[in-house]
Amino acid sequence: MSMPVGITQSFGAILPYQSFEDIIVKSDGIVIGTVYEVEYHRFDAGQIYTYLTLTNIEVLDGRYDSPELSIEIEGGEVDGEVLDIEGSPHFEVGDHVILFLLENGTQIVPFVGWTQGVFRIHDDITTFANKIVTDYNGNRIFGMENGTLIKENIHLDRNVFVSKRSTTKKSVSNAVQGNVGMNVLGNVSSYSQSPVTNLDMALNGLNGTPKTSLTLEHFKGIITDRLNGVKKTQAILNSISKNTRTDKMRRNKQ
Questions:
Q1: 3-state class of 19 per DSSP?
Q2: What does the DSSP 8-state code read for residue 204?
Q3: pTM of the model
Q4: Which residues, including other chains, have CB under 8 Å from residue 39's CB and lie 6 or more apart?
Q5: pLDDT (tens digit, 9 = 90+) per residue, 48-86?
Q6: In this structure, are strands 160-162 and 14-16 parallel, antiparallel, or unpaired?
Q7: Which residues pair with 207 in a beta bridge?
Q8: Which long-range contacts (CB under 8 A, 24 or more apart) does 103-107 make?
Q9: Is 162 exposed, middle or buried (0-12, 13-18, 19+ CB in 10 A)?
């Protein structure tokens, strides 16, 4: 994957692991679109920002009234001066992406879990009839189980994703020093959105038949189903809260 001119590959960042369910629930906007323009600007204070223009957007969640969306990411390159935010995703014109946004215009990297909240859309080279979805690094996705994506683990992320079960600074330090960019880090229970550790099991079923990549439509269906589940849960909680307040008012009047 190429990088913008003047920006060199960094070692990445240590970030909290986000399950796919976390990514959906924590996002304040989910959009599909094509990167039309990538621009870099330096402000008077010296900070450099990248501005992505996303066109032909399809909104899966959130409210965006324009067919275009501008996304602000800290970092970039202006007149040979480089500001590289370690672990931040990079984009090129023409990228077809699914973005799970979080506080665009406020966060330095406005995607849930940074690269974890960026997915790419490609033509299915086996059928040429469908679009398939990969993670940011190009790993094919096969489905979801217990809120976590089942996917390849071929193209490793340069970031280190640490789960809540990680307990020691030493374990994280050892992982970073010895396995920068790896997904399984010593005794640190962390991985890049996939519990699969055996590539053969990831790519093949029990009968040896290659697993089928998740299509864009199926991927969108998973997102929609989860969003509907969140809305139903919130409606139930709101109803319980309302009934609790009503009962309290009645008791106060007695």
A1: coil
A2: B
A3: 0.75
A4: 50, 51, 53
A5: 999 999 999 999 999 888 889 999 999 998 988 888 888
A6: parallel
A7: none
A8: 103/28, 104/29, 104/71, 104/72, 105/72
A9: buried
